[in-house]
Design a protein that fits this description.
Elements (H helix, E strand, L loop, with lengths): L1 H12 L10 H8 L1 E6 L4 E6 L7 H15 L8 H27 L1
Antiparallel strand pairs: 1-2
Helix pairs in contact: 1-3
């Protein structure tokens, strides 16, 4: 969460375009929050300045931004990995056949 908070704050304060659909609840949370310390290494999060406001909406926006910024896509399986997976499946099939034969012979 510390990394996500830092990435989001940098994105908002830099020249990157971060926008939303003008949701009043999100606007109210963002304009009424402040930093709070997390740990002793300079990590931070956000907290509402007034107790009646809930910060969870901002947290979900921050995590969504982090997920989109760090997503690298699905890796394709290499030929060797696919071959080893097939060998494993074949081994499991042979093992199951052997167990089934033992059970039927008893």
């Amino acid at each position: 969460m510390v990394v996500a908070n830092n990435m989001f704050e940098q994105a908002v304060t830099s020249s990157k375009n971060i926008c939303h659909n003008d949701q009043p609840s999100l606007k109210q949370i963002v304009t009424n929050c402040k930093r709070r310390a997390i740990g002793t290494n300079g990590g931070f999060g956000f907290k509402a300045m007034m107790e009646e406001h809930e910060i969870a909406l901002l947290d979900s926006v921050i995590l969504a931004h982090w997920a989109c910024a760090t997503y690298k896509g699905v890796k394709k399986k290499t030929k060797n990995k696919l071959l080893s997976e097939r060998k494993f499946v074949f081994f499991m099939q042979i093992t199951l056949l052997t167990v089934n034969r033992r059970n039927t012979n008893e």
